[in-house]
Amino acid sequence: MKSTADANHDSPLAVSWDRDEIIRLRDTYYATTQRAFVPYKKPLILKRGQGQYIWDEHDKRLIDLLGMNLCISVGHSHPAVVRAVQEQVAQLTHCTTMFYHPVPAHFAEELAATMPAGHEWVVHFTNSGSEAVDLALMMARAYTKNSDVVSLRNSYHGATYGAQGATGVQGFRHNVGQIPNITFAAEPNQYRGIFGEGTDPYLDDLDRTISYTTSGKLAGMIIETVQGYGGIIPMPPGYMKGAFDRVRAAGGLAIVDEVQSGFCKTGEAMWGFEAEEVVPDIIILGKGIGNGIPLGALVAKKHVADAMDGKFLFHTYGANPVACAAGRAVLQVIAQEGLQENAKKVGAELKTRLLELKEKYPIIGDVRGKGFMLAIELVKDRVTKEPAPEETEFVFERTREHGLVMSKSGTYRNVLRMVPPLCLSMDDVEPVVQAMDRSFSDLMAKN
Ligand SMILES: Cc1ncc(COP(=O)(O)O)c(C=O)c1O
Fold first, then answer.
1. Is the model's pTM score more than 0.70?
2. C or N: which end of the chain has fewer Cβ atoms within 10 Å?
């Protein structure tokens, strides 16, 4: 005789794969705030993923150049991550931080070991990148006893109140009155930044920002090593060092947001900041850390984190063992499969091929990025650099028809952003480039 629990196993909850029904349910029951983020004219419904590929509800295969907004780091349904998650979820699904469990503790040690030597690093696990950004802002203020924080224009740091307050991209800032004492310096965009190319003019602007818009005493400055949603804007050589020297001189901490650029995405190192001569005080991690399992983390120098030791800070699901088991597997897979080297090699080849497309299509104003953080910026005129958002929209829609998924980014929605899982292979480069080529040639045929 079957128990009630067994009987329930035999009747899983029904799922409708009817396209109209999925759209109707989402449009009816999602709040506008969650419903509005739809890039394609015809919604894309996804059924499964494997490695760097995803399949829609009609079993059409697409190359995932977005990695589900960079959450899929080592590949969709990577067997090592799936196994780690399945084993942990079956054994103990959650262990509140009031109690001890080895998996998050091991993961904290393993993450700390990836940070620059010679410092004592500690980890605070959160559920998302935004929560880790919020904590970083609080921690920097608690440690320095200063309030003012500098962020960069064109930055994205998350959607929660604190993280949104540090976000510079207009499209992500709601008209609700943001948290105070966050000021913005010019982003050192080498293609269309306000001061053109170079690092020094932007550091001069930072000096002015500190002089004219703050008390002169800083809690810190937060920087993405490569601005992600801003349209793949890598910090130019020397900027982060120069910026953090200035911030530290004003009493502040160096906070690096590696939510997009971390876990080898730039192909150069585990962390984007390693390409520069900087050792941050606080590092924010998220997205690919759990290969799709919700997880975020703040890593800080111990004496900095200790500034908040007066009270505990409780994230109900923080340090969840299932998410941390996924995180441990991600680190292991990156090392075992040589995925940093892969991102470097394949990313370089893809960039070379995208630069060839730039020779062919004058609408491509810029090809930039490194590793698997790449972008193409579309302009109506290469001299004036007038953004081409309608053309970008057209090419973007065509790339889907030709079998690719990527994203539109940047303040002017004229940047095609490519941030695939670390397992995109050399064999994928040709189909990706061909699909891009056909999409641009569709645009030329239309005009
Ligand atoms: C650079 C950066 N920082 C922080 C965040 C916030 O992370 P989450 O969406 O997990 O809260 C994001 C999310 O896109 C991000 O791209």
1. yes
2. N
